[in-house]
Amino acid sequence: MGNKNDVLQGTLVLLILKTLAAIGRMHGYAITAHIHEVSSQLLRVEEGSLYPALHRMEQEGWVRAEWGTTEKNREARFYSITARGRKQLLEEEERWARLTQGVARVIRYA
Amino acid sequence: MAWYHRIRNVLQPDRLRRDLERELSFHLRERTEELRAGGLSAAEAARVARLQFGHYAGHVERARDMDISRRLETVVQNLRHAVRGLRRTPGFTLTVLLTLALGIGANSAVFSAIDAVLLRPLPFPEADRLVQLSQVRVKVPQPFVAPVRLEEWNRLTGTFQGITGHYTEDVSELSGELPEKLTRAWVAPRFLSVWGIAPALGRDFTPQEGRFGGPTAVIISDRLWRRRFGASPDAIGKRLRVGQSSFSIVGVMPAAFLFPQRDVDLWSPSAPDAPYAQSRESTWFTAIGRVKWGVTIAQARADLARVQAALGHQFPKTDADIRAAVEPLKEVTVGGLRRSLWILFASVSLLLLVACTNIAALLLSRGAAREHEISVRLSLGASRASVAAQLLTEVLVLALAGAALGLLVAAGASGVFRSLAGTLPRIEEIGLDWRLVAYSLACAVAATLASGLFPALRATRRNLAGSLAHAGRTQVAGRQQAHFLLVGVQVALAVTLLAGGGLLLRSFQQLGRVSPGFAPEHVLTFHVSMSWGETMDLKAANQRIARTLDGLRSLPGIEAAATAFTLPGVPTQYQMEVGTAEGRAESEPKMFAENRWVTPGYFATLRIPVLAGDTCRDEPNTTMVMVNRSFVNRYFAGSTSIGRRLVLAANPAQRPGEITGIVGDAREMGLDREPVPTVYWCDGSLQPGTFFLVRTRNEPTSMVETIRRRIYQLEPRRSVYDLVPLAGHISEAYAQNRLRTILLVFFALTAVSLACVGLYGTLSYLVTLRRREVGLRLALGALRTQVVRRFLMQGLRVSAAGCAAGIALAAICTRFLAGMLFGVSPSDPMTLATVVAAVLAVSALASLVPAVRAARVEPMEVLREE
């Protein structure tokens, strides 16, 4: 549980940014659901850990947040990506690509 | 999250918590619903949702951390802890608070004086461009400028925006029921424009009013406007009567305009084309100029010198030996106060240092008491800096509170300044403003660092193992050394302050012991109003005065009466060159003497003894002269002086005065100066501002009404004012001296008290810590007196060391007082010895109390505590 989560927490920012860039305005629960669905249930985020990440990203200026209502007329906090967030997303994607390439090469060296 | 939101979240934590709750609980609810839709029961769904969410509280905390300003939160936490901690120890808090209030308050008070008097520009627009101009002539010591010359200076110089002048006289205003004395200023043209002010009501003078024979006009002061006319706008146009003429009021000056003198109530234009103003020799204006934009004072000086040199060529007889002098007006006004104020500032800063040292010692003890708590925090991972910051926050809270209290002290101080030395320049401008508040805050921060830094560092030193293992009672000797060092520093600083105060006090004492050469008690002085116009006919004026003096002398209770242009004992200088009518040989040195213009009754009134010859004959318009012994000894030693005739070198055309007698030396120039050669001209030389002196049989003030009534009988159109005993004038002349001495002595006494309190506190603490040791000693057979002596000696040793250091420091510092002392040298051994003895005595007392308390320890009780 520990190890798997460490890697996942590190890429949480990437996952959230990509989700918001692709879909648009979402609340935290929807983001969790989307990641879960699209990854064909391979990725299971400790759901609560999303929120510190989201708040941190808000502080960094990568996402913007505002209160709104869902279709079921409930109050929720909606997040959307900003221009700086898109730039950050590109950086994170690059970093992920480098990481996976590096790891793949080491593994292939058998 | 924007930075202002993050700050707001620190101050309103509930709101943040609510928002986070809303957000995260929404997520949980959605998950729970989804699970229920999938078939789980309500309770099961909730449990699984919670599980999947993870550590709820942890996530809330971490999300919250992102949303607040960490640093501000630390500061707010520190503040809360500090206030809580301070409230738990009210004794400590109160002591430190009062000490800081006193130290910072006194500092702020002196700073407010320095700011108002020395630092701030005069209260006029661009006041740094205002200068005072004077004409300097070797033989004539007066700086006043002739009207003709003033106009020429104004016209011919290119560096001045304008030059104007004023002179004052006291007049009787007659439009009320009784004649009222008012001070009137005659002003040259351009007066208001040079000063840069406009009348608060009404208008400036018109050019016609500024011309001779034109409509008479006057601008009145705000004070007079409120008093006489009830601040009503239809005062404009009313008329005031002075002497034979009436003047129409054309304007009211702004309330804050207290120049050229504080008590001027009327301003009237002095016409430059008046016939009596055409002579180049009639000088009466105090000239003020405004330098043009971008021109320096040096340039203005050079320009004026050039103009005056040209005038010297044009009018060689009158102007060739005249030089023009230019001084910044502010310097002229406040220059004399500068040294006193800085000395006060230094003293009050020393006092603050003593206060901070005192507090540092208290903080050391407090830190020692919390050692256990601090050790635990350090071992749990707190950084040394954060713990030290928290300790410093406590001190900062105290300092800020102390500064706030101190501002109250400072606010009251302006009242104190005014009552102690109301006649000093610009005293009325001292008050509370934002600069003072900023200065107090700066003092508070400085005090915090000075008192708190060392104890905070001391308390957080990394000595964990030792501290944690302690039961908390055994002491390390090193800590006591720090305490005693601090007490020693306080004693040293207190000794320095006390030495300074003692020297000033002794000066004052010596001043009182000086034999002045005349008898100032039982002499009443006053003025009777007259105008400059009357000096045209001096013969008649002198006869009138002689009549008045006779009238006064005939009153019962009056023993003698005279007039004098200056008062004895009040420093005024009229040193001029004197020559004999027959002339003196080139080889003989020039004679310089102080000149006094008196009536013959002066010597009897002041009881100045006549040593040889006779007093001048008591008739008006006499040409007789008296000289004092110093004059004779200096210039006529060995030859007869009686019968010689003297003239003023500057005015050889006057009738020579014949010396009829020699009088004893009187300290005319002030009690702190040696008597100088003096010539007394018995013709009185009447002018507005001449003093009347009467010797009364009883208390001078008891004769006030009688004198007023008699003068009213003799001269109903004149007012009598400023009836003050001579002793009052003499003491007022030393007002600055007095202020300095009183304040310095006050600071010194406060410093000594603080040092003693510090010594007492430290020794008490020591006694408390060493109870076990003392109990053991007593049980083992020591005598109680031995115990007392031990602690007493410890206290005295620290005190003596402090005194030694203090003497060294005082020897350096009192040198700055050198110019202000009279009759004592800055390193006067008797004063220093007295100071040291006093400090040792008081510290012995302060040490005695805890020492006796130590001796009262019951050995059995202490041993049982083990």
Q: Would you write up a description of this structure?
A:
The complex is a heterodimer of chains A (110) and B (866). Chain A contains 4 helices and 3 strands. Chain A has 110 residues and is α+β, with helices and mostly antiparallel strands. Chain A has a 3-stranded antiparallel beta sheet. In chain B, strands 1, 2, 3, 4, 5, 6, 7, 8, 9 and 10 form a 10-stranded mixed beta sheet that branches. In chain B, helix 26 (784-813) runs antiparallel to helix 27. The longest helix of chain B is centred in the middle third of the chain and has 37 residues, at 384-420. The model of chain B has no long low-confidence stretch (mean pLDDT 83).
Which chains have the largest interface?
A: A-B, 19 and 25 residues
CATH superfamily annotation of chain A? Winged helix-like DNA-binding domain superfamily/Winged helix DNA-binding domain
Number of domains of chain B: 4
- Total tally of structural domains of chain A: 1
In angstroms, what separates the terminal alpha carbons of chain A? 27 Å
Stretches of chain A where pLDDT falls below 50 for ≥5 residues?
A: none
Shape of chain B: globular
Largest sheet of chain B: 10 strands, mixed
For the record, give the distance between the C-alpha atoms at the N and C termini of chain B, rounded to a whole number: 60 Å
User: What share of the residues of chain A does DSSP label as strand, in percent?
Assistant: 5-15%
Compact overview of the structure:
The complex is a heterodimer of chains A (110) and B (866). By secondary structure, chain A is of the alpha+beta class.
Descriptive terms for the model:
heterodimer, A: 110 residues, alpha+beta, Arc Repressor Mutant, subunit A, 3-stranded antiparallel beta sheet, 4 helices, 3 strands, B: 866 residues, 4 domains, 28 helices, 21 strands
